Amino acid sequence: MPPFIPPLSDPTKTVPALLSERALVSFSVESLTQFLHGETLIPQRRIRALLEQDPVFSNADKPFLSREKMYVRSLEKAAKLVEMRKRNEWSEEDMMVAMRMIGDSTPQILHEALFIPTLKTQLSDEQQKIWLPNYAQTELAHGSNLRKLETTATFIPETDEFEINTPTLNSMKWWPGALAQTSTHCAIYARLILHGKDYGVHPFLLQIRAPVTHAPMPGIELGNLGNKIGFNTIDNGFLRVHNVRIPRSQMMMRNSKVTREGKYEPAKNAKMNYSTMVAIRANIVRNAGFALGQALTIAIRYSMVRLQGGDRIPSLKGEEVKIIDHGMQRFRLTTSLALSYAMLMTGRLMFEMHRRNLKNVIQGEVGLMAEVHATSSGLKALTSDLATAHMEDARRACGGHGYSWCGGIVDILTTTLQDVTVEGENTILHLQTSRWLLKTILAALKTKDLSAVPAGLRPALQDAHILDQERATIVPGQPVSGETLIAAFWHREARVLQEVVARILKDGAGEEAMAKSQVRMVELSRTHGEGMLVRNFFEALAKEEQTLVSKGQNPTKGFLPVLKQLAELHAIHRLLEQAGDFTEDGYVSRRQVVWLRERREELIDGLRYEIIGLVDAYDLSDNQLNSAIGRYDGRVYESLYEWAKYGMSIMEKGSQGGVLGFDEVLKDVLAEGRRINGVVVAPKL
Amino acid sequence: MPPFIPPLSDPTKTVPALLSERALVSFSVESLTQFLHGETLIPQRRIRALLEQDPVFSNADKPFLSREKMYVRSLEKAAKLVEMRKRNEWSEEDMMVAMRMIGDSTPQILHEALFIPTLKTQLSDEQQKIWLPNYAQTELAHGSNLRKLETTATFIPETDEFEINTPTLNSMKWWPGALAQTSTHCAIYARLILHGKDYGVHPFLLQIRAPVTHAPMPGIELGNLGNKIGFNTIDNGFLRVHNVRIPRSQMMMRNSKVTREGKYEPAKNAKMNYSTMVAIRANIVRNAGFALGQALTIAIRYSMVRLQGGDRIPSLKGEEVKIIDHGMQRFRLTTSLALSYAMLMTGRLMFEMHRRNLKNVIQGEVGLMAEVHATSSGLKALTSDLATAHMEDARRACGGHGYSWCGGIVDILTTTLQDVTVEGENTILHLQTSRWLLKTILAALKTKDLSAVPAGLRPALQDAHILDQERATIVPGQPVSGETLIAAFWHREARVLQEVVARILKDGAGEEAMAKSQVRMVELSRTHGEGMLVRNFFEALAKEEQTLVSKGQNPTKGFLPVLKQLAELHAIHRLLEQAGDFTEDGYVSRRQVVWLRERREELIDGLRYEIIGLVDAYDLSDNQLNSAIGRYDGRVYESLYEWAKYGMSIMEKGSQGGVLGFDEVLKDVLAEGRRINGVVVAPKL
To answer: Closest partner residue to B660 among A72, A410, A680, by Cβ?
Structure first.
């Protein structure tokens, strides 16, 4: 096992640059950490401390491994997790926490393959739906469009079995994680064929590998997709099935059922599936916030240790400055930090919404479902887009060291990049949100009943001219209130909506009209999501303020005033980034744009000595960060050097024990060079 | 050697979807290819045809290799190139072409290490400056700031030697390509110390490895940095030097010199270095265009083969549609295509500018130099930012297959990502451009002599109110002329400039003022570069029109009208993407924004059946693309499947010949699972 190399941070050896930064933070980082993580903080820390005693969980070797070796290491980590779970009697929730705390991805499906009987009998309905489906759904030529899947499960009444087939090359299952090498069973999505009639796509449990030998079962072909841009610990694979029989009982019958006679019984509560999707997407939103937070922890700490430039500034007398003190660097990282917090707050509120909604659904009330589901779609798309874009920006802000795996951002960035595609491709999700919004509005316009329309959009629907009269109430030299900013985002959304509705109505208001307006519809969903991020941030802080007041604490002290500045910064920055949407109808004037820019600058300057606290509060350990430049103690350069030397010690060697390639190729090339050019030792210039 | 797998495209087997697309293109793709590549097209094709007969140049294995094996393969390719060069009597230029045509990166430095004597005697001055410097410059804790490098070269008069030292951990050389394992010599940048006096940083030739054994020379420590996000064929490394003596003749004395007595003779024509930088940056601009073109060739071909969605559109009767026919997909890819062509046209004009300027410089006229150099800085930054952002967008537009290496975009994207950092980090370059622009303007305002100010900015400097009166002349339902669009970008630049100048003047107009305005200065450089891209595209087409007319050809036929549409689309799209800058002062009105959006849509629709021709014209071979989904014949799915199977055949195996990890870890875990849960074969649900 690799040691924890470079040695984990020793807080007593923290570099002076970070010590002095931390001394200036105005709030208790621990309080903010508790606020961000809530009740999961204690188990997170307990479990992480346990994990980080065992070198199997060291991520130090990851920057140097091949895909094959990454996979082996992820298996080792998975195996150890299983062992620790048993030894420590972890709950299912503890296990989930552990998988988050290791700072790496393991084939969880392995876990499912081991424990399917346990899972089936012990997990709640909801957990089963989160963890069992999704395997072996996507086909080679078919993505998110379930209706077009070609795999079949044909009922054979004589033997009470289904016969599974992937009849064409294009219907081969393609992409499922852990399918290529790890899994013994999978849930396969196939068209249910009963007495020649197609009942649509349903999930079936399929054994794909034999016990002991692990060889593919008869009729099963399995394979590996090869390297990906990231997530290479996981063996994404393909699966072809040729005439494989399974007992009828292996259809997953929690929802729809097939009787012994081959009679179809449709699902009773299909809405539950939507509720699950909301939870998964809320998770992606929250992950987007933390993944960006991880990149920013690295980039901000590094920017406080790294010195560069400043030669031209006479007052510095030739001293180099921390790169965080270059205006552009501070601007990029502080605005990204505001975005990360906005996403965390929205993730938090989405979970609350999901829990409320789930309670309703269980009681048979599905009124909120469509809105909640549609909103979660667009937010998943918006936040995964924004998070990955800003993570990439943070990577670039680290210069060359950001390009290297030992910088630490590469791994988390390339892993998070899958979130723009999985669980619903982002463009398709935006279109879902927009379609829901437009249908709601078109129906409301017809019936004059606006109750289903989001409140902020109602005034403009009641009076079309109201948007032309509205003006933002931004004045110079003052903070911009949450109300003002929220109103601006509602105005913008209503304006985009007005244009899109006019277009759709002109084109006949049907699906063809919507298909013609995709670009603007995606824009509409984005504006909807941007508004949510802005509102939710302010709302979450208002709630926390109430909580503090009810506990008798002073809300004008501590982290809350700092987060309020961050919320204002987030809203102003998002507005300025899309200023055209706000200025094109004169809602925000040219002078107001200038004032907003000044206010943004003021906020960024005001947050200058808080930002180290804001990233420390994410509470990410050195092993989770796995970064030479983002470590807690700031010993960047020693760490880069030590880590590179360790990496060399585990590189694959050549036949003579030297660097792979030297004896094999380079030696002869160099010899030939010497033969042609003479010995090039100490050439005379 | 790997076969060319999947087999290279067979045009006679092209899928019907691409055949029908190609049949509809209105112009000769071959003519456009000739226009894009100019006189290099013939050698490019000749050399590529030679290379692609030899499986050593197959890139088919690359998606599956570890870093160590990628390096070995790159050595094999480099060795073969050297051999072919000799056999085919390639010129230096042919060799450069060959390195571009292999669709992979080899350690060119190997080539230099072999042929330094040849290079030194045979290359022109300019070529020497392009290919010799840049090695061993960056230090661990010091990036672009040459002045802060700590490595020393101290003259020892007694022995006529220099003693080289990297005195601290932070001054260790860090990052040079091919330094870790390949190079035998390097050019090391060190502070020249003569009789105790520091003369600043100069380059020295240093032997780092012994002949035959390839072991580091005494006093030399070398190492490898580990994996990077891309470019892993190249062994970026580090270098520490402890008291290493070299003869005085190993100082590189083409510019500054040191005599036997230790007397310093400064360089005579330092401006030449700037001219070289312009050439390198023009190359990055052009590469940005082609790299984005490579990603778009893949994404656009794939989007014409891939079917998805359309279920909701009644007129389609359940048929799936090519994803290019989804409005959002077409929008993303067509606007990116316009950007790629804009960058190619600007790269072309920059090379012309560079050649003109170089001629001037040689004749002692350096008047243009500052502008040309500053402009090239900002353009390098702008185009590398935009190209990589749009390449990533193209990758996402390919869904899951874009995430996989076999999709082909991952490799070119992660390789191109280094361009935002190397040859001047982008933020620093933008600031250089802005500083030059501001200094020019501030001087002109003082002297009232505007001759050094770019022409489009002069009117606003002569009369500050002119910007408030200007209005864009965009009318509905008509094409927007190049003049109108160029004027809009000048207006925007003048407006940003006005604000920045006011700010800087208010703050004292010195370096401290500029340091305080970094964010807006970067913005200023971006607007400057955006304007150049817009103007250059129209200008390059106007030139081509003249050329065609002078040859007696009809410029209203062929590719020229199509490229004109693309130039209009590019300018309109860039304007709309930053609409706030154009609408905040009312220069572009709200109605005009709507008309521009309509015109953009019209242009995208009009180009629908040209885009396959526009990407085919880049003339990239299947082996260069190295993509299962972007191949010329469109056989996407067969190729993905065949390629994955080939990849499995070269994966690293476990001790028992199976998948690495099964015998080592997974077997025991699964056995333990069976022991705990019983055999999970065919569980009854």
So the answer is: A72
